[in-house]
Amino acid sequence: MSTLTKPKESTREVTAESPVRFENLRSDRLWVGSVGLAIVLMIVSYFLPLWKMNLEAPQYPQGLVLTAFGNRMEGDLTEINSLNHYVGVKEIKPDSVFELKLFPSALWGTVAILIASALLMRPGWKRWLVAALLWAFPIGLLLDLQFWLYNYGHDRDPTAPYRIEDFTTKVLGTTHVVNFTTRTMVSWGFVTMVAAALLVTVGPQVARFLRDTWQNTGTPGAVAGIAGVLLLAGLAATAQPAAASVQQPSIASLIAAASPGDTVIVPPGTYREQLVIDKQVTLIGEGRPVIDGGGTGDVVVITADGVTIRGFVIEGSGTNVSDEPTAVRLRGNNAVVEDNIIRNVLYGVTLIQSEGHTVKNNQISSIDEFSTERRGHGVYLYSTRDNRIEDNIITRTKDGIFLGFAEFNTIERNTVTDVRYGIHYMYADDNVFMDNSFTHSTAGGALMYSRRLRFERNEFGYNRSEASGYGLLFKDVDDVVMIDNLIHHNRLGITMEGAPHTPGSVVEITDNLIGFNQVAIELTSTTGAVFSGNSFVGNLGQVEGRGGDIQKNNLWSLEGRGNYWDDYRGYDANGDGIGDLEYRYEGAFDDLIQRNDAIRAYRFSPAQTALDLGAKWFPVYEPKTRVVDPHPLMSPTMSLAGSGDNGPLMVYVALLTLVAVPVAVFASAARGRRGGWQPC
After folding, report:
1. Which domains does the chain show, CATH number per domain?
2. pTM for the whole structure
3. Tens digits of per-residue pLDDT, 182-198?
4. Contacting residues for 483 by C-beta, under 8 A, at least 6 apart
């Protein structure tokens, strides 16, 4: 007979350690939650851009954009590769970038490790390894990108059409190389990676700190109240005011109601009217209002003295070339035209028979549908004096800045591209040009029949039209001084005809870079020009002359200081920086061109090279000497080296801020509550 036995009672005791294990379980939940959010963020980063580069070039005024994802690149890659080709930078081929192929595997492998760590890992050093793995993504991305950018700027094709010095584009910040500007920045995918790393690094500690703080101070009612207040505040901030049916006044009526000396604020909107400002007022656009002239005549005419117009879009002038219609015509004195966008007009700003104006910080373009010859000038100065033309961006006009019978003007820090002549200049004396850029046009500048001109720190580059293509043309000018200018990548660097024009006058070309041109200097009937301290580098031809003995009639050194010539083969025994042998430039091919100009078609061909070498090796035929520099410099005085702002320190400051600030804040707060850091 079977017997019933009483089930044996469990002997497991509930000890004081049970609450501790429960607390560890709660801590693990915080770890699991942080890791779970990090997994989501890492997956999201796969679909978001990590890094962006914006390349600003004169021929692309809107900029070119390259966007890097973890596994691909998007944007204006074809155009960027086309520009890079000219300076020898290797083509960017995303399919050949190993890191782009590795990224998906690395990301999904990291997600798998995160899942395992959430389920298996206890507090300790292994969790710190997981955090380090996540930080490797954003930090590694920046370091790897900087490595690639360095290589692209240094491992270049030496046979490229344009030769510049090696450069390094910064992975974060702004870099300037010649007249290109590159702006680089991280994007949302990078931010989500950093957020994922922060969650795994300090997420559990922060969550515990907030939880404990809540338990000590918070109630559900308080949370609901705060949430309600925040919601109402958000709704109030985003609410749009009801539209009022109010007739928008004209700008002319606002000016008519103003007294002389008043400031007139123009609300946003489009104003289809032509203005005549006949009293001294300051006209300021709020929110960039548009003044549209409707395609007839001038848009704005200023006849009073002391008028300021600032902050507008001005468009829609007439198109009849004989009338020279313009966006802003200045007939009074001492006007200020500042911070306007001037577009779709024949002429930009016209200064005529008046003086003392300031034209500053405007963006000026003509009518895109018209050919260059059909357009008007960007800034047109005629029979005017004592004006300042500063900080303007001028593109797609006829001539960028035209001066006729205009004296004592200062032209400073303007950028002019994609025009006929960057600066066109006739019968205009005593003018100063400083820190301007005249590039990518038919010609950089044409200056004629004028006296006492000064050029400092300007750039004349990439003007390669076969019709002219000179960086600067001087014709029948006197007393010209050129110092510290960049004259590069033109068909002809400087062309001089009758410069100086008057006996006793001078043209001084000092301390300029004249480089990477087909011909550096072309002299025609020029006597009395002085060249010293200039750097002649990378030119296919140094000096070409027609009419007269250019070697004897011009000076190639001054007070014992000559020029740097990159084809000089002398030496400097005493180390004073001056070559001990004179520099001589000869050209058999140039002699033939003087006899028969049709031979010019073979310039820069193998025929020219063979002829010039033959003249050196077999001195039966001795070509005419073009240049004798008795004191050649041993090193250049200027270069086209890239420069940039912000510095590489930006990368490290950004990373340090992302990591140190949140860790320090929450660590300090948690330590204040618990008397010490409590690991999860």
Report:
1. 21-210+648-674 (no CATH), 258-431 (2.160.20.10)
2. 0.60
3. 889 888 888 988 888 88
4. 455, 456, 457, 510, 511, 512
